[in-house]
Amino acid sequence: MLKDFKDFIARGNVIDLAVGVIIGGAFGKIVTSLVNDIIMPIIGLILGKVNFTHLVIVLQPSEGDTAALTLNYGMFIQNVIDFLIIAFVIFVALRLLVKLKKEEKQEQAAAEPILTKDQELLAEIRDLLKK
C-alpha cells in the first residue's frame, strides 16, 4: 500500500496538479487584490464615489449587543467581478495551450514520413536481415 501511494505521488500528473493548485491560489490572491484595490475603486468613483464594500441592505437593525443583520450585495458584486476575471484568464490560457498542442501535433505529423507499400515491405526486409 505504501509503495502504491509512493507511485501515485511520483506520477507527473499529481505533481503538475499540485503546482497548478499552488500557482492558482497565488493568482487568485493577485486577482482579488486587483479587483478590490484597483478596479472597484475606479468603478465606485465613476458611479459617484460609491464604496462597494459598504453596499448593504439592512434586514434587521442592531439591538444592544446584537449586530445588525445585513445583506452584503456590494461584496457579492466584487466577488462576481473577481470570478469573471479569473475565468477569462483561464479561458485565454487554455485556448493558448490547445493551440500550441495542435501546432505540435501538426509538426509531428509532418515530421513522420508516410511510407508507400513498397517502402514498408523494404523496411520489413531490412529489419529481418538485421536480425
Distance between the termini: 42 Å
Following the backbone from N to C, one meets helices and strands in this order, namely: HHEEHH
* Overall shape: elongated
Low-confidence blocks of residues: none
Radius of gyration: 29 Å
Describe this entry's structure for a reader:
This protein is mainly α and 131 residues long. It is built from four helices and two strands, in the order ααββαα. The protein has helices spanning 2-10, 12-46, 73-111, 117-130; strands spanning 57-60, 69-71. A two-stranded antiparallel ribbon has the order 1-2. β1 (57-60) and β2 form a beta hairpin. α2 crosses α3 (73-111).
Show the helix and strand layout:
Blueprint: H1 2-10, H2 12-46, E1 57-60, E2 69-71, H3 73-111, H4 117-130
Antiparallel strand pairs: 1-2
Helix pairs in contact: 2-3
Write a brief caption for the model.
By secondary structure, the chain is mostly helical. Helix content is 74%, strand content 5%.
